[in-house]
Amino acid sequence: MVGLKPSDVPPTPSVKFLSAGTAACIADLFTFPLDTAKVRLQIQGEKAAVEAAKNIRYSGVFGTIATMVKTEGPRSLYNGLVAGLQRQMAFASIRIGLYDSVKQFYSNGKESAGVGIKILAGCTTGAMAVSVAQPTDVVKVRFQAQLTLKGVERRYKGTMQAYKAIFRQEGIQGLWKGTLPNITRNAIVNAAELVTYDIIKETILKYKLLTDNLPCHFLSAFGAGFCTTIVASPVDVVKTRYMNSPLGQYKSAINCAWTMFTKEGPTAFYKGFVPSFLRLGSWNVVMFVSFEQLKRAMMMSKQSLEGTA
After folding, report:
1. What is the pLDDT of residue 145?
2. pTM: predicted TM-score of the whole model, two decimal places
C-alpha cells in the first residue's frame, strides 16, 4: 500500500475543511508559475497589456515562463502568491471541504449520490466559495498580470496595499469585480473537477483496478484536471480579462466576451489552454493526493489524541 491507510472512522467536516485549504495551498506553491503564465497569455492582446509590454511577446507556456524570467526575473513567476494562498484557504476550504457535506444534504444523508446530486453540490460549494473569496482572486490576478520592468510603474506594490487601493479607487464593487463570471466559472469548474474525480475514483475502486491510495488518487485527479480544462477555459479567459481590466474598459463580463469574440475571434477563448491544462492537471494531482493524505493524517492524529485522553 502506497501512502497512509484509510481511517476506520470517516473524516469529520472540520477535518475536510482544513485539509482542503491546506492541500490547495501546497498545490499552489508547486504550480503558481504555470498559473501566472496562463494569466499572461490570456491577457495578451489587451490594449493595456500591449502598451505596457510593446516589445514583449509570449508564446507557449514554457516560452512565457522563460520570457518572464529573462525580462522580469524569476520572482515575477510568483507575483500574487500571498493573495493566491489567502484565496485557497478561503476558497478551497469551502468548495472542496464542504462538498461531501452539501452532497449528503441534497441526497438526504444517503451514502451514494447520483451524478445530478453531485453536480448540484459542486455548483453550490463553488458559488459559495466565490462569494467569500472573490477579493483575493481579484488581487491575485492583477498581481500576476502586472509587469515588473524597469521604467514601468507597478500598479500595486503589496498585497494589503492592493486591497486598499482597489477599494479606494473602485469602491467595494472593485473588490468583487467579475463575481458573476467567476461564480459561473467556478460552479462549472467545481462541478467538473469534483464530480469527475468522484466518478473516476469510484469506477477504479468498483472494478478493483487499484486500491484506495496514491496511484488511484493520482489517476483520478489527472483525469479530473483534463476534463475541467476543456469545460472551463472559455469562462476562465473572460474572467481573467474582465477582472484585470481598468475601470470602464468593459461594461460587463458579457461585453468583455463579445469584444473578445468580435476583435480576436473564437480562438481567443482558448488562449492559454496548454498552461491551463498543465496547471489544472498538475494542481489537481498535487491537491487531491495531498487532500486524501492530510485527511487520513489528521484523523490518525485525532484518534491518537482521543485515545490518550
Report:
1. 86
2. 0.85
Within 10 angstroms of residue 271's Cβ, the number of other Cβ atoms is 24
pLDDT of residue 48: 58
pLDDT at 22 over 70: yes
d(CA 3, CA 26): 17
For residues 64-91, b (16+ Cβ closer than 10 Å) or e, as one string?
bbebbeeebeeebbbbbbbbbbbbbbbb
CB atoms closer than 10 angstroms to residue 226:
14
C-alpha cell at 133: 473569496
Mean pLDDT confidence for 65-78: 93
